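so the lab meeting is tmrw and i was supposed to have these ready like two days ago... anyway. pasting both below. for each one the top line is the aa sequence and the line under it is the structure tokens. i havent really looked at them closely yet so no promises
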Amino acid sequence: MRWTLALVAALALCAPAAAERTPVLRQVDVPHNYYWREMYVPQLTSGPSSLAWSPDGRALVYSMQGRLWRQEIGSREATQLTSGPGYDYQPDWSPSGETIVFSRYHDDAIELWTLDLASGEARELTRNHGVNLEARWSPDGGRIAFVSTYATGRFRIFIASMTGDFAPRQFSTERRSAVPRYYYSAWDHELSPSWSPDGRELIYVSNPEIGHGTGAIWRRAVAGGEPVLVRAEETSWQARPDW
């Protein structure tokens, strides 16, 4: 009985501290941060994750223990590509084979970086102190599509040219859903972009008028227009469309 009372008292003392704990990555504006934090942003791993093919299909780049690694198909050895502070994740190989774009968690933000494979030089691409994820090269290598909380605090797709000034533009206008949501923002989100082979469209996950789950699979022209439903779903961070 004494042990039970002591445990209750200890939990009571811990409750205010837990309630006042600062959430991880405050840049994300959603009612409950557990779901995206545990299922969408980079997670600590001891094994390979988030793989991407080289353009010639002879090698893979992947994240492991916070670094990027390259491994030739059929080889038992991997070469470490990145180092230093931060956690590197979600690489994507450029069509030219010369550059890798990836997300790096450092200083309470996730920014996009590029890695020049010839020189080994890593360069910061975004500097908005937001959460920037899932960068994907266009088939011609001239643009990337990525997900960012920039400006709104909500996950939205942006597109940016990789030649000249890096000036991302929002893929579509924001939309407020009429369906009440408990876990996610009242504003629709966009996740997991993938380019069409001709570079004219994106396929992605979004949740217009979906109350639960991360949403259905949609396609929309990069130049604009109405989105087209591809598959109706209420996925829970499980869908990752790839064209």
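ok protien two:
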Amino acid sequence: MTATRRQALHRLGRAWVVAAAGGGLVPGAAFGSEPRALDVICNRELPFAKLSREEVAAIFTRAIRVWRGKDVLRPFNFRPATPERLSFDQVVLQMDPDRSAQFWIDKLVRGEGEPPRKVGDARTMVRVVAALPGALGYLAPEHVDATVRVVARIREGQVLGP
């Protein structure tokens, strides 16, 4: 096992413990509560106009890494146990925090890739997605600006077109 893989497993293990213990959860943001409204965003150079729930899930689980043989995709997540991440995982990936953590531990152990990189806040998410070719992320609608493109909307537990 490489040092990078060990470090990633260690980070995931810590995140899993925090998520499982409920650390950092905001009241009303627990898995199973009403999901937050989120917009899935991408770098404006990507050719997407609209993505389905299944396409977004495939990108964020790294099942799809390159779009139509051309564009390398770089998804970005919020940190575990944040309200945005809990809502995204619940609606798009259809996973609770424990299942999400276990999913990535299993992929790392099998050498099938690492999880999306994490950002700490909406401002950073917009800046990273706008600046990095192939980047995708998600955030509350009020944080979206003209530097990124909305390719899906999460409303009332459903993934809708932009």
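from a quick look at the 2nd one: Helices lie at 3-21, 53-60, 83-93, 97-109, 122-131. The chain has one domain: 3-160. will dig more after coffe
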